């Protein structure tokens, strides 16, 4: 069975998929057997034949040059760019925890490391009408340690501290923070980094600038040690 790491974020559109891709690519480039998994993915385009393209999974697969099949990366793919619980209400095919467990463990049995990406923030509802599942329930069920992705800019202190406090209350282990869209030397962003560390007690593990193709300051060996 694999060692695993969950990628959560302070909200949506803050770069979880990009950071997940960097994590996967770093391990893959170091010769490690790594895979990607995301339980539910919304906001996807269709192929000419009408089938949905799991866009986040495709990005990671191509960015990290994985041979892993797209079909194994995500069991629930939706077209509407809304929370998965609403997308499934509109489109049908609601998320079932037993399917998430089964498909995750199928990936886990085949690889040494699995990077699991969340949908939105940690409280995001994945299913609601048929079976009440929030993202935190998946993290707990699969027993995943987490890292938090945050935008480096204005407002991040509040969102980082609130996400940290919620996960601490729910006893979901956090290994550290990844700052995305970081501008080294920027007074505010450097202070955001310092304040987030002081107010949460978590380390900022990497500060990622737009266009980075590797994780600054985090070699593969140190990255792999975050997995459990």
TrEMBL record:
Which UniProt keyword terms apply here?
Answer: ATP-binding, Biotin biosynthesis, Cytoplasm, Ligase, Magnesium, Metal-binding, Nucleotide-binding
List the CDD domains hit by this protein, alphabetically.
DTBS
Q: Where in the cell is it found?
A: Cytoplasm
Annotated ATP binding sites? 13-18, 56, 117-120, 180-181
- Pathway it acts in? Cofactor biosynthesis; biotin biosynthesis; biotin from 7,8-diaminononanoate: step 1/2
A molecular-function term among this protein's GO annotations: ATP binding
- Ligand binding (Mg(2+)): 17, 56, 117
| GO terms for biological process, alphabetical | biotin biosynthetic process
Entry's SUPFAM superfamilies? P-loop containing nucleoside triphosphate hydrolases
Any Pfam family matching the protein: AAA_26
Q: What is its EC number?
A: 6.3.3.3
Q: Which reaction does it catalyse?
A: (7R,8S)-7,8-diammoniononanoate + CO2 + ATP = (4R,5S)-dethiobiotin + ADP + phosphate + 3 H(+); (7R,8S)-8-amino-7-(carboxyamino)nonanoate + ATP = (4R,5S)-dethiobiotin + ADP + phosphate + H(+)
- State whether it acts alone or in a complex, and with which partners, per the record: Homodimer.
| Chain's role | Catalyzes a mechanistically unusual reaction, the ATP-dependent insertion of CO2 between the N7 and N8 nitrogen atoms of 7,8-diaminopelargonic acid (DAPA, also called 7,8-diammoniononanoate) to form a ureido ring.
**Protein name stated in the entry:** ATP-dependent dethiobiotin synthetase BioD
Per UniProt, what is the name of the gene that codes for the protein in this document? bioD
């Amino acid at each position: 069975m694999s060692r695993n790491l969950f990628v959560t974020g302070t909200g949506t559109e803050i770069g979880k998929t990009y950071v997940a891709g960097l994590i996967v690519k770093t391990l893959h480039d170091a010769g490690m057997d790594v895979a990607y998994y995301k339980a539910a993915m919304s906001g996807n385009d269709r192929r000419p034949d009408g089938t949905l393209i799991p866009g986040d999974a495709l990005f990671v697969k191509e960015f990290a040059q994985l041979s892993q099949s797209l079909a194994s990366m995500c069991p629930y793919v939706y077209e509407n760019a809304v929370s998965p619980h609403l997308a499934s209400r509109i489109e049908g095919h609601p998320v079932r925890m037993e399917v998430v467990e089964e498909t995750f463990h199928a990936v886990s049995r085949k690889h040494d490391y699995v990077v699991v990406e969340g949908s939105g923030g940690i409280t995001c509802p994945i299913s609601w009408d048929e079976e009440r599942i929030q993202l935190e329930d998946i993290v707990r069920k699969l027993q995943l340690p987490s890292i938090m992705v945050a935008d480096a800019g204005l407002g991040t202190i509040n969102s980082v501290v609130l996400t940290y406090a919620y996960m601490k209350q729910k006893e979901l282990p956090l290994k550290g923070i990844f700052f995305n869209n970081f501008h080294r030397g920027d007074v505010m962003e450097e202070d955001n980094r310092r304040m987030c560390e002081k107010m949460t007690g978590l380390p900022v593990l990497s500060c990622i600038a737009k266009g980075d193709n590797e994780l600054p300051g985090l070699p593969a060996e140190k990255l792999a040690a975050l997995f459990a």
